[in-house]
Amino acid sequence: MPRLTITHTTEFRYRGPVAHGPHRLMLRPRETHDLKLLAFDLEISPQAQVEWSQDVAGNAVATATFATSSDVLRISACATIELSAPAWPVFPISAHAAQYPFRYSDEDWTDLGALASPQYVDEANRLAAWVEGFVMQRPTDTLSLLKDLSNGVTAQIAYQLRDEEGTQGPLETLDRGRGTCRDLAVLFAEAVRVLGFGARLVSGYLYDPDKDLVGSSGGGSTHAWTEVYVPGGGWIAFDPTNAAMGSVNLIPVAVARNIGQVAPITGSFAGEARDFVSMGVSVSVERL
């Protein structure tokens, strides 16, 4: 079980001192049966008052409020975790869900709600037509179908680093044939929702000790992937950026219906657009 230290630092620079509005921070790793949080420390400059809460998905959210102006805002989070996810996971899928299509229980269907409904307009059903190419027959093995679809995203969509904010819609990603890890995760989530699965987007970090995974820079990187709910197996991680299933290299921070709901840092400042100079982000994921 590797123990890791994750350091995530974001620095905003301005032309002169500006007043900062409240900032919403999602930086604390999300504890699961595969991840144990051993320590977490949050440092903010200038000094801020920090209030912690949980959102509707159970994510840890810190809200920072500032009393002084400054020309530099620096937010640094350091976490120590222990990972225990197996490299070759075996999921105890319920018998009734082992073959697709299957029906969620009434309780599961109610609780999944919007997580099982497509989120993007597709009047011509283009995505549905694309997804059908991965359904070889009905019935078919559920996990095999999900793996084939994840691998299909990997094979057909080239990974491309993009520094600009925002995420492409699934049809835009299909048309362009390239995208970031966020774009690939959104495409896969929307694809499985078209098939009737419940899915949620995950933001976090990628642990890449062998430096052979896509979407990682240096010792680690912020990353995005998808979790699909399968009865018996629970929320199963799929990383279409790396054609991977399971969470052996994944460190979740936040989960949500929409990728825009899991941004690590959101906030504002009082001033004009030209007052903003730069934003720098550094992430390291290292084994102790």
TrEMBL record:
SMART domains: TGc. InterPro entries: Bac_transglu_N, Papain-like_cys_pep_sf, Transglutaminase-like. It comes from the Bacteria. Residues 173-242 form the Transglutaminase-like domain. This is Transglutaminase. It comes from Roseivivax halodurans JCM 10272.
